[in-house]
User: Fold this.
Amino acid sequence: MNRERLKGHLDLLLLSVLAAGPAHGYVVIAALRDRSEGTFDLGEGTVYPALHRLEDAGLLGSSWADAEGRKRRVYALTGKGVTALAAERTEWRRFASGMQAVAGWSA
Amino acid sequence: MTTPGDPLRQYLDQLKASLRRTEASLVLAEAEDHLRESVAAGLRAGLTEFEAHEAAISSFGSVRAVARAHQSRRSRAAAALTDLTMATWNLTWLWLLAYDVSTMVIYAYLKMSMQGSAMPAAPSAGGALPVVSIGLGIAGLPLFAGYQLARRFQRRRGRAVTTRFAGFSPLVAASIFGAASMGLFLLKISGAAPVNRPLILASLVLAAGYAVRMRRAPQSQGRTA
Assistant:
């Protein structure tokens, strides 16, 4: 999938993955790839700034943990993030429904 | 663990050199954790150590792409300050050059009208060459060149130029130049202070120009949204 097109929906995708529970970057990115069956295969290093931006906006919180002798940053949805995710999902459903009605396949 | 010939360490060192110091340590710690985990996953999938390192780095992205992604996430305060500086810089060179050009136009007009008239000209009306105006115009040229270079540098670094003030700047500029032209005009007709006409004309032209841009800005933003 076109990466530029995907970037417009990255916030929703990241919030959706983290709705399942706290996770560190590698797990979030792997979940994005696996759950989309390889469709959403972003440059992994470019996803982290998006996570940081969501944290700056107060939608995610993060904490550092030790893992195998390394520092690991774990992200989790905040209350504000849960609300934003619900709003983003509603918006996406409306958008997808409109796209389907205009450009989608119909029986 | 890292070894002297560790390709991940080499990659992280290059990345470190491309990041701002304030954010480098946290970004690098996170990147290293990701890359080590990615290598471990590659080894579990049956790749050789060399292949696992190559695959991990390739999936993570080039140093340039990663650094650029982090640079574009500047703090809001830094972005606002940069945009404000660029907007001020832009207005300054524009005003200096506009003042110079309008002075020269009026000077040339008065010179021509004096040639066709037997009336003696006032000392300030097309007599001596407007040295101050020329000096300001010359000062505006390096400012203009510097501004263009700064914009090019920002684009190369992947930073948007004056996005935050894209709609704000024309409004402020039109207001400032509009108010300046009115104030100068009032000073001129009241005789309270000696104000030359090019100054009023330059301010008026700039106010009109920015008023046009102000009207166009929402339309162009709508098209690109």
